[in-house]
Design goal:
By secondary structure, the protein is an all-alpha fold. It has 13 helices and no strands. It is globular and about 55 Å long.
Length: 210
């Protein structure tokens, strides 16, 4: 089944950026400020999603520290999570809720290899069925771990704020409104997201937005 373009190299990102710049002059203006956009490909699989769960609602430093302890303890695979005691997982830094989410992910028995060739809608539906994985995490996984070129994360506050500034909107667009806007950026919505994240950093530095 066709999954659309897969972003594998910086040249893929540059191709999408060129398309967006030709499609909308505001994207062209943003690109002049941001410069070339990053590839940002990540591994796929259980550990990547477990790491995303670990990172929820804690600082980057805390998430890195917890993940480091989990790796040191060998607690990054589904069988190890299933076999570990709650005390083992607590010792690594997981809260009671995150222990439940980690076990749910292990018990879901997701076929990560099959997800690589599944339609994006199926990927997201499979992932959000797991407690602790929301739409944003599933969309980010499809975007960066699977390299899908045409997926967006409209619930992301930085994307919402960047769209407000770049498109001179009266207020930050809500998730549904931004999802509708992003339809116009198909088939390169993942590159539009990269561009808006990069533009957010530029605008934040320039205007002091938060």
């Amino acid at each position: 089944m066709d999954v659309g373009r897969i972003i594998e190299t910086p040249d893929c990102v540059a191709e999408g950026a060129d398309w967006l710049a030709g499609h909308d002059p505001r994207f062209a203006a943003a690109l002049r400020e941001t410069g070339p956009l990053p590839l940002r490909r990540k591994p796929d699989g259980f550990a990547e999603l477990l790491s995303a769960i670990v990172s929820q609602q804690v600082s980057v430093a805390s998430a890195n520290a917890i993940w480091g302890r989990m790796k040191d303890a060998g607690l990054t695979g589904p069988r190890k999570i299933t076999w570990a005691s709650d005390d083992d997982l607590r010792a690594a830094g997981l809260s009671r809720q995150k222990i439940r989410y980690a076990r749910a992910l292990a018990e879901a028995r997701i076929n990560y290899t099959a997800l690589r060739s599944a339609p994006t809608e199926e990927v997201i539906a499979t992932l959000v069925a797991v407690p602790g994985i929301g739409a944003w995490t599933a969309e980010i996984y499809a975007m960066f771990s699977l390299g899908r070129a045409d997926v967006f994360a409209p619930g992301d506050l930085a994307l919402q704020e960047a769209a407000r500034v770049l498109f001179d909107l009266p207020e930050r667009p809500k998730e549904r409104a931004l999802r509708d806007m992003a339809c116009d950026w198909s088939p390169w919505r993942s590159v539009a997201a990269r561009l808006l994240w990069a533009y957010y950093r530029v605008a934040k530095n320039r205007e002091g937005i938060r």
